[in-house]
Write a structure and sequence with these properties.
This protein is mainly beta. About 0% of the residues lie in helices and about 50% in strands.
Length: about 170
């Protein structure tokens, strides 16, 4: 007797917006300050190869908080450590402050800013951006569901976020 099991695609945490093959997922100059907000996108690449999911965050004088990042291709999770549950960026994430940090500290993983689990990410540079990225292999024409949870600290003068696939 053979038992056939089929893998099912996980249900996204919120309804995905279809963005086709666009590389821009989110650009914003404000965010929810009361609680984490869910963002989800259905993306279909036109070429195969390595793709990098990048978060560019700036929040003066406060923080952006990020948690539970995922990219699914069917039932396959394409990212590693999307919830920062290792307690650090490794494995999976690259974190930089491309133009220096100004005041504050570069982004970091902390148990204080989680949405779920034990850890989450907080950006920290004032006057400049933090950049957080992770790469994965993508196949042209296949559908990928990208989702993440984001929260803004108090309002400020230099608040921006950009989320891209490149």
């Amino acid at each position: 007797m053979y038992i056939c099991q089929t893998a099912t695609t996980p249900t996204p945490p919120c309804t995905p917006s279809s963005i086709g093959s666009s590389s821009n997922l989110l650009t914003a100059s404000s965010g929810s300050t009361s609680s984490y907000a869910c963002y989800a996108y259905e993306w279909t690449p036109v070429t195969s190869g390595t793709v990098t999911l990048t978060f560019v965050l700036q929040h003066n004088p406060d923080y952006w908080f990020l948690d539970d990042v995922s990219v699914y291709n069917g039932a396959v999770q394409m990212l590693t450590n999307g919830g920062f549950e290792s307690g650090s960026f490794s494995p999976g994430w690259s974190q930089t402050a491309p133009t220096g940090c100004g005041s504050g500290t570069t982004g970091y993983v902390s148990s204080s800013y989680r949405r779920s689990g034990s850890y989450g990410y907080a950006d920290g540079c004032n006057g400049r951006t933090d950049r957080l990225s992770q790469s994965f292999a993508a196949t042209a024409g296949q559908s990928y569901i990208v989702s993440f949870w984001l929260k803004s600290g108090n309002s400020g003068s230099g608040v921006s976020i950009s989320v891209t696939l490149s």
